[in-house]
Write a structure and sequence with these properties.
By secondary structure, the protein is α+β, with helices and mostly antiparallel strands. The chain has one domain (about 10-160): Peptide deformylase (Peptide Deformylase, Alpha-Beta Complex). About 30% of the residues lie in helices and about 25% in strands. It has helices at about 25-40, 120-135, 145-160; strands at about 45, 55-60, 65-75, 80-85, 95-100, 100-110, 115-120. The strands form two sheets. It has a five-stranded antiparallel beta sheet, with helices on both faces. It has a two-stranded antiparallel ribbon with strand order 4-5. The longest helix has 16 residues, at about 25-40. The radius of gyration is 15 Å and the shape is globular. The structure holds nickel (II) ion. Nickel (II) ion binds near residues 88, 129 and 133. Nickel (II) ion binds near residues 87, 88, 89, 129 and 133.
Length: about 160
């Protein structure tokens, strides 16, 4: 599975709901998990591997690997926190992003079981970041324009080198 990089139009498109959680989806989820681990990432969303479906996988240190299918953000804390983010689609770029500190999410796992997760810390951060991918939003959209332009230019240059 190849991970698409910043500049790919696909990363800017909205992903479609998954109609049925079948064997294909299980295979997709495990392939995404593998690609994520290979890239030493802690989260990966469908569009990043060119699959325009509402699915992402997450594995943060000290936690179990998690699959989110057709997730919806049920609620977020009013409190906003600053945390350094990176993305497998924008390798080498890390920058502080402000987002809600806590999130409540509803989704289905790869076994077709619906769950609700209320969490904070890094897990909340990764959930919000990955959810954005399903909407065609990247973390650099959530920083100042000046900073974003600087990062984009630097990234484009590093790709050409
Ligand atoms: Ni990302």
């Amino acid at each position: 599975m190849d991970i698409l990089l910043l500049g790919s139009e696909v990363l800017r498109q909205k992903a479609e709901p998954i109609e049925e959680i079948n064997e294909d989806i299980v295979t997709l989820a495990s392939g995404m998990m593998e690609a994520m681990h290979e890239g030493k990432g802690i989260g990966l969303a469908g569009p990043q591997v060119g699959v325009m479906k509402r699915i992402f996988v997450i594995h943060v240190e000290g936690d179990v690997p998690r699959v989110f299918i057709n997730p919806s953000i049920v609620g977020t804390s009013e409190e906003q926190v600053k945390y350094e983010e990176g993305c497998l689609s924008i390798p080498g770029v890390y920058t502080d992003v402000i987002r809600p500190g806590e999130v409540k999410v509803q989704a289905w796992n790869e076994k077709g079981k619906r769950f609700i997760l209320e969490t904070g810390g890094i897990l909340a951060r990764v959930i919000l970041h990955e959810y954005d991918h399903l909407e065609g939003v990247l973390f650099i959209d959530r920083i100042s324009e000046v900073k974003r332009n600087r990062i984009s230019a630097k990234f484009a240059k590093s790709r050409k080198a």
